[in-house]
UniProtKB/TrEMBL annotation:
The keyword Membrane applies. The chain crosses the membrane at residues 21-38, 50-66, 96-117, 124-142, 162-184, 215-234, 273-291, 297-317. The lineage of its organism: Bacteria, Bacillati, Bacillota, Clostridia, Lachnospirales. Coiled coil: none annotated. This is Branched-chain amino acid ABC transporter, permease protein.
Amino acid sequence: MKNKNSILNIFKRSNMTAIGMVLIIMFIIACIGSPYFLDVYNIQSLLRDLAIIGMIGIAQSLLLLVGELDLSVGKIATLCGILSGMLMIYTKINPWVALICGLIFGIFFGLLNGLIITKLRLNSMVATIGMQGVYGGINLVLTKGKAITGIPEQIQFLGKGSLGIVPMPFIFCIIVLVLVLFLVKKTKTGRYIYAIGNSREAATILGIKVDQIRVFIYVVVGLISSLAGLLYVCRLGSAQSTLGESWPMNSIAASVIGGVSLNGGIGNPAGALIGAAIISIISNMIVLFGVNAYWQQAVSGIVVVLAISFSSIMEIVRERRSRS
């Protein structure tokens, strides 16, 4: 009985522990279910997919910590990739300069989102749905639905290459995670983020510049989204207008699965990477087990619902126990 209570206490204290155990169980199931899962090529492919979902998930978790979200992250990534690709191909700008320009575009789009939401006092979900349409429309106007091909090989290693056996995109993902964790755990801005998520009104009373912090987060999200988009362009060797369609949903799913509360103020960006790993393994298992690929979106949706339900159930249980 004592051991049982200690296990329950671990789960209560840390959602990360529970989610980490789920990830390990899924990894074991995938290893047993398919002999190809541990193949080096498959693991590298899995890590590349995980890196993109993970980066977007980490970015989205920052917004969820203040009780907001951004549904335009996929279109920002796409537009930055297209603009950077056009600079490389059509204007013959140095590819490295074009990549830096792509990151700057991401910062600008994130800033635009943040200013629109804070200055006009708009709901983040509604506003970013609208901006998703704006960025998507610009994508189609620029490309007319056609891919921009001929991305220089000298930068393609950023998406295709590896450092040893570790894919380059995954290395970038870890760097992003470390920087974001430093931001939220070791700086005043990080403490302000949690304070705003717990109570925006109380944070304002305490003198925290709430709107400035919110705009800053949107800028960071835009930057990370553009980085993910550019790495994917380097991986494909082309910039496509259909890139990132499922990224908003997957990023929210990864964050929620990783224990970040939709109400703000609770969670850890590292959990978003664990959630992204779970989603990536599910997607990989769908392919390896020969399941129709069109089920992937349905499975992702089911995972989101289950994750949200699990989080809500745990909160209800905690409330009842605290009352008793």
